[in-house]
Design brief:
The structure is a single chain. The chain has helices at residues 17-28, 42-50, 61-65, 80-87, 105-114, 158-170, 180-208, 212-215, 221-227, 234-243, 245-267, 271-286, 312-322, 353-362; strands at residues 7-13, 32-38, 56-57, 70-73, 96-99, 120-127, 147-151, 174-178, 301-306, 327-336, 340-347, 366-369. The chain is an alpha/beta fold. β2, α2 and β3 form a beta-alpha-beta unit. The longest helix has 29 residues, at 180-208. The relative contact order is 0.09.
Length: 371
């Protein structure tokens, strides 16, 4: 029988949405006895301490990690290597250090060069988040059914990798293990490139328009949907680019070649070529999973048929809220103008699905649990 995973002390460096959610979930599942936390915002650290998210508030990262068996670095991606360097001389022999950064090659390379041989590093990237930020928004269900990638290099300690995989599985995450380089290439294509495209498209339209007052009314839903992610944090995306320049640059070059192919077909008025390009893109896009986050179907999804009338979403959320059923995310699928569509509700707790479906059915909605 496998021994129960447990750490006597865990240090969270960066007690925000992810760090707070890790602490809450680990404590809820009995994986840690004590959690020490450090963060740049004293008010938020105070909040975490008062609400039992952490047990100790450390003045420095060095203080936080003393005596810790597990250290989770949850700082912005641009500060992860610097933070690991700061704590390197204070870590206990046998400690495991992991992180939650969205790029891996640079971080893993730096960590393996910095940390002593007595300490193991396992790069991690839990693909979970929220529209809200800060430790106040942390939950003990944030990582349920989310994908967590662990980056394994030729220097990764297999025992440490196994423990961190078990740690995330205990968080109810789906674990995928790959090399740091493969991770960075895949997220460059699937996550980083879309952001670069949104930024370029936004800048292109802004530069073309000499009179922005005239162009603004013409920017319809398609433009707003395509460029929504361009509103992300400039600091965060700067750091992502600086820690994954090789692979982001490579996929951007490939995208540039694809754009030139489309441009040449447009300029050359090639109907068959254009139709082929559009049909191929449509086929790939239509084949993507329609539900949940990434490749995973959510563990607590309910589909509700709704009519196109004012306030219908408010009725649903109010009814669930009054019943104490929390909604993690809402998506509208299969929208039909003047007729309505299907509302996808991701609940915080899978155990609420039965009650939510019955409550909504009793109110006249067609609600279906997704298995």
């Amino acid at each position: 029988m496998t021994d129960k995973l447990h750490f006597s002390k865990m240090a969270i460096l960066g007690v925000g949405l992810l760090g707070g959610s890790i602490a809450k979930t680990a404590k809820k599942n009995g994986m840690v006895s004590r959690v020490s936390g450090h963060g740049r915002n004293p008010e938020r650290i105070g909040y975490a301490l008062r609400n039992g998210i952490i047990d100790e508030a450390a003045a420095t990262p060095e203080e936080a990690v003393r005596g810790a068996e597990l250290v989770v670095v949850c700082t912005p991606v641009g500060l992860i290597s610097e933070t690991i360097e700061r704590i390197s001389v204070c870590l206990e022999p046998g400690a495991i250090v992991t992180d939650v950064g969205s790029t891996k090659t640079t971080i893993v390379r730096n960590a393996e060069a910095i940390l002593p041989d007595s300490v193991s590093f396992v790069g991690g990237h839990p693909m979970a988040g929220s529209e809200e930020s800060g430790v106040e928004a942390s939950t003990d269900t944030l990582f349920e059914n989310a994908l967590c990638v662990l980056a394994s290099s030729d220097r990764t300690n297999i025992s440490a990798l196994n423990r961190i995989a078990r740690f995330w599985e205990a968080m109810r995450s789906q674990v995928m293990i790959m090399s740091p380089e493969e991770h960075d290439l895949l997220v460059a294509a699937s996550s980083h490139l879309p952001h670069m495209v949104a930024v370029a498209l936004t800048r292109c339209v802004a530069e073309i328009s000499a009179d922005r007052e005239k162009v603004l009314p013409l920017l319809a839903g398609g433009f707003r949907d395509t460029t929504r992610i361009a509103s992300g944090s400039a600091d965060m995306w700067r750091d992502i680019c600086l820690t994954n320049p090789e692979f982001i640059g490579a996929v951007m070059e490939r995208f540039g070649r694809t754009m030139m192919e489309v441009a040449e077909a447009v300029r050359g008025c090639e109907p068959e070529k254009l139709e082929s390009l559009f049909a191929d893109a449509k086929s790939f896009r239509d084949g993507l999973p329609a539900k949940g986050r990434g490749i995973l179907a959510p563990a607590s999804e309910i589909l509700v048929d709704v009519t196109d009338r004012p306030g219908v979403i408010g009725e649903i959320t109010l009814a669930l809220g009054e019943a104490g059923i929390n909604i993690r995310n809402i998506n509208v699928q299969h929208v039909r103008e003047m007729r309505g569509g299907t509302l996808s509700l991701i609940l915080e707790k899978a155990s609420d699905m039965e009650a939510a479906a019955k409550l909504l059915s009793d109110k006249g909605f067609i609600a279906t649990k997704v298995d």
